[in-house]
Amino acid sequence: MNSIEAIAAALIVVNVALVARRSIWNYPFAIAAVAIYAVVFARARLYSDMLLQGFFLVVNLYGWVNWARIRAAAGDVLVETLTPQTRALWAAGVIVAAAGWGTVMHRYTDASYPWWDAGIAGASIAAQVLQARRRLESWWLWIAVDVASVPLYAAKGLWFTTALYLVLLAISVAGLIDWRRARAVRMVMA
């Protein structure tokens, strides 16, 4: 498992580094990584994370199309933001989804850390969708996911994945800074 986990982790690092740069080439790396991570999480009995990989596959395909369309129209991958009301709705949705999913995992499976895992899964879903839609707020969610994931994966002995999420935390902070800068430059030029 360690070698397959290491390969998936390496693919994710490349993927997220490319996302931070708003490169459309992040998507092939993401698709390969989520396919491998589905196996890793199934073996670790982190079922929420395992199922999340299938969702990520679909959203990465959607994101690839969306980013390609906007890049073709605007010449770049443009960064947008949510309204305060929309942010509140997304936050409420994450909380409700995580509580519901955690309850299902607790009652009906032998999942390890069902609510913690579900919280990470819920926030990851929101972050991935927002990222596919090129929303700046996706980075805040990824930062929260990274911070929450490190101790969970360490508790499960998934050391490559633990290290991965430490690296992803640094890349997510850099991505937030870069996307904020890109958004600010665009607003000044508009």
Q: Order of SSEs, N→C?
A: HHHHHHH
Structural class: mainly alpha
The share of residues in extended strands comes to under 5%
Number of helices: 7
State the helical fraction. Answer: over 70%
CA radius of gyration is 16 Å
Task: Describe the global form.
Answer: globular
Quantity of strands, as a count: 0
- Rounded average pLDDT: 92
For the termini, the CA-CA separation is 50 Å
Overall number of structural domains = 1
Major sheet, described briefly?
none
Poorly predicted ranges (pLDDT <50, ≥5 residues)? Answer: none
Could you walk me through the main structural features you see in this protein, from its secondary elements to its overall organization?
The protein is mainly α and 190 residues long. It has one domain (2-189). Helix content is 84%, strand content 0%. The chain has helices at 2-20, 26-43, 47-74, 84-108, 114-132, 137-155, 159-189. The longest helix is centred in the C-terminal third of the chain and has 31 residues, at 159-189. The model has no long low-confidence stretch (mean pLDDT 92). Keywords: Cell membrane, Membrane, Transmembrane, Transmembrane helix, Transport. Its main location: membrane. It is found in: Cell membrane. It is a multi-pass membrane protein.
Secondary-structure map with pairings?
Layout: H1 2-20, H2 26-43, H3 47-74, H4 84-108, H5 114-132, H6 137-155, H7 159-189
Keywords:
transmembrane helix; NMN_transpt_PnuC; cell membrane; membrane; transport
